[in-house]
Amino acid sequence: MTTATSAVLQPAPSYRDVPPIEAVATPSTPKTEPARRQAALTLEHISLSFGGIAALGDVSFAVELGEIRAIIGPNGAGKSSLLNVISGIYRPDHGHIGLAGRDFRQVPASKLATLGVARTFQNLALFSGLDVLGNVLMGRAALRHAGFIGQILGLGQARREDKDARERAERMVDFLDLQPVRNRPVATLPYGLQKRVELARALVAEPRILLLDEPMAGMTAAEKTEIAEVIRKAQRQFDLTIVMIEHDIGMVMDLSDRVVVLDHGRLIADGTPQAVQADQAVIDAYLGVAHDDRDGA
Ligand SMILES: Nc1ncnc2c1ncn2[C@@H]1O[C@H](COP(=O)(O)OP(=O)(O)OP(=O)(O)O)[C@@H](O)[C@H]1O
Q: Domain ABC transporter: where (predicted)?
């Protein structure tokens, strides 16, 4: 936390006229409160354990349309578990996830793309044998309607989808300034560019919600600044709601509209970057100060 004190905060983006996703009515997102924007994602009383280990305990918060929301916390706080709950990899023991106007006990991971959600991974999950364009094209695969046989035989619908996917992938390669390396096998690219390819692959699915798992991990300071600019640009261009786990607190404070802080699987703060970095419970969590009221978590 102490590294964040010099961070320059960006103003929250103004409300954009995006098609509304019907908010799931929860105590934390009352539809009657006019000052609140609509929720893109709600988590209600999420608990998850692995054997005897409580990874998440009664976590609730709402992410508003168009915001960049960071999830931070010390190692083992439950950040990845939470992202895996949101993306349907884990079914929580308790709680609900509100997404795309629907309420889930477990988000159907196989339908994530059609629910308007795309994600990147902490460790790169690229197809190392494919070139940049090929990897970006894979981001359209889950949205294709033509069946396997149609694709093999190159039938009408499959051909049209192919052409459409290629055009969209080319546009995304342009958008992320990857044109000079579009035919390079991804494995030959520097790490920062590979992370950019992963972002392009997520964005080409045209998500409304983008989940980023440590988008700056392993990057140099220059690469971090570059990717932060790319994230901002994508958020504005595509009216995205972004939920991001990131360890670089300076970058988090710079990029986020709001920040959720987890510690020992519990939500200990949810607020603006300024509020969160001044919160005593957050400072204590990062300094490893024990609290009696967390012992039961
Ligand atoms: N698949 C799993 N099996 C058993 N325990 C797990 C599993 N995944 C997470 N845990 C445990 O749940 C707790 C939360 O882990 P999680 O990875 O979600 O934390 P994190 O905040 O993402 O940590 P880090 O910052 O180190 O990535 C930890 O105690 C971890 O050991």
A: 41-289
